[in-house]
Amino acid sequence: MALRIVEQAYMSDTGRQRTANEDSFFAGSPVFAVADGMGGAQAGEVASRIAAESFAPADRGESSPEAYLRSVAEEANRRIHGLAEEDEARTGMGTTFTAALVDGDDVSVAHVGDSRAYVFRDGDLRLLTSDHSLVEELLRQGKLTREQADDHPQRSIITRALGPEPDVEVDTMTYRAKPDDVYLLCSDGLTTMIKDDEIAAILARSASLEHAARELVERANEAGGRDNITVVLFRVGEGEAAAVEEGATLVGPTAAEAGLSGPAVREAARDRAARGREAPEPAGRRSRVRRWLKVMAALVLVAGVAAAAFLGARQIYFLGGDEGGRVALYRGLPYELPFGIDLYSEVSSSPIQVSSLPEPDQRTVADHELRSEDDALSLIDSLEARVEPEPRPRRDRTGGNRGDRGDGGSGGGGN
Fold first, then answer.
1. Same domain, 199 and 346
2. What range defines the domain where residue 389 resides?
3. What is the rounded end-to-end Cα distance, in angstroms, of the chain?
4. Residue 98 forms beta bridges with which residues?
5. By Cβ atoms counted within 10 A, which residue in 29, 141, 228, 341 is the most buried?
6. What CA–CA distance (Å, rounded) separates 189 from 160?
7. Within this chain, do residues 32 and 103 fall inside the same structural domain, yes or no?
8. What does the alpha-carbon distance between residue 166 and residue 367 come to, in Å, rounded to a whole number?
């Protein structure tokens, strides 16, 4: 017997530190989705609404669940990117996108950005998606521990979204469901405020999904409510299907005031497609100016990400080898962005050579593990004590030898 959606609940809240809600969601069984917009001048709200509304007119036809979800995401990406190109005030706008489709005994998921999908089964909460973010990339490379990633100041910098580029890569996956599984889709306004174990505890003790959704939002607000908070919950089982509310979507008030209701978004998309069929975009000076503006916007975005990441990493240290092969202390993240932008700088160097250390100690220096300043300095003192280097000036606790500060050279970070 195929599984059915026997219960569902959803809730979205502006949070305690935002004035507008840029999250949107779609809840139209058997499809559910969450989108978290980004961009000024209400652009984020518009982008997330377009993503959520993309399901309403979509016809799955004979497509597989994953192919259908991917096509919806790609079409939303084209609409958002096209609208941004037509309106300079919305240049660079985008949105995350996490959607789930229940098909028989399977649940298929499509994902872009750092909104998340979870399954709660037999008391355990399991993350189904992988964040497309700078911090998650550092975590995959072993540059951060999970504990460091959870509290990292740059954890909201995403590396993939719908809208900023003409094409987007969409992650899709399919999982076998079990009766009484609860699936949670949420924006990062929930997961940056409360940990997974607390989410699991709330789901375990809640008498209904409606109660669970309410408590999850309340707890995120109590923890600070720094961002918009959206949760969509549904339970699968073998019983009678839950009643479905037609067109259950949400959008912040400013987009609605601008006339960007679901029908208006779809009508604008149809008009744009019709114009595209009637005449291609003219070449010449206007096209060249637009291309240059896009290049400049991309450069500014990369520079902004680099600056934010660099400033947030000023309290993080790691060991490495300098250009002279000596053990060196670096501040920042052992990571290099495009255009030669380093997220680290050399603070000081030790008189001992990395090659003079025992092999286990050489690996310790080379692994670029992130540490506090005191921890890193203590490790250097320990290494120096083991190899008994030549007499050297006494080290102060600011990271250098007295009278011998590092000159900011390179060589310790990067991949």
1. no
2. 313-415
3. 51
4. 34, 111
5. 228
6. 17
7. yes
8. 37
CA–CA separation, 88 and 182 (whole Å): 42
Cα dihedral 114/32/36/170 (nearest 10): 50
Q: What is the pLDDT along the chain (415 residues), one digit of tens a residue?
A: 689 999 999 999 999 998 889 999 999 999 999 999 987 656 889 999 999 999 977 778 889 999 999 999 999 999 999 999 888 878 889 999 999 999 999 999 999 999 999 999 999 999 999 999 888 888 778 877 777 777 676 666 889 999 999 999 999 999 999 999 999 999 999 999 999 999 999 999 999 999 999 999 999 999 999 999 999 999 999 876 665 555 455 544 444 444 444 444 445 444 444 444 343 343 334 444 555 555 666 565 556 555 555 555 557 888 888 877 888 898 887 776 555 567 778 888 888 888 778 878 888 888 778 888 888 888 888 888 877 544 555 455 444 443 343 333 444 444 4
| One-letter amino acid of 201 | A
- Asked if residue 349 and residue 273 are part of one domain, the reply reads no
Q: In angstroms, what CA-CA distances link 235 with 66, 119, 362?
A: 20, 10, 51
Distance CA 268, CA 364 (A): 58
Strands 341-353 and 248-250: unpaired
CATH number, domain at 196? 3.60.40.10
Strands in 229-237's sheet, in edge-to-edge order, are 4-13, 229-237, 182-186, 116-121, 124-127
Q: Does a structural domain hold residue 67?
A: yes
Look up residue 24 and give its two tokens: 């949107």
Single-letter amino acid code for the residue at 297:
A
Cis peptide before 30 (omega within 30 of 0): yes
Burial status of residue 151 (CB atoms within 10 A of its CB: 0-12, 13-18, 19 or more): exposed
**Does residue 352 sit in the same domain as residue 230?**
no
The number of folded domains in the chain is: 2
Give, to the nearest 10 degrees, the angle between helix 65-86 and helix 43-53: 150
The reply to whether 296 falls in a domain is no
Last residue of a domain, one of 228, 260, 278: 278
In a domain, 130, yes or no: yes
Residue 264 and residue 322 in one domain:
no
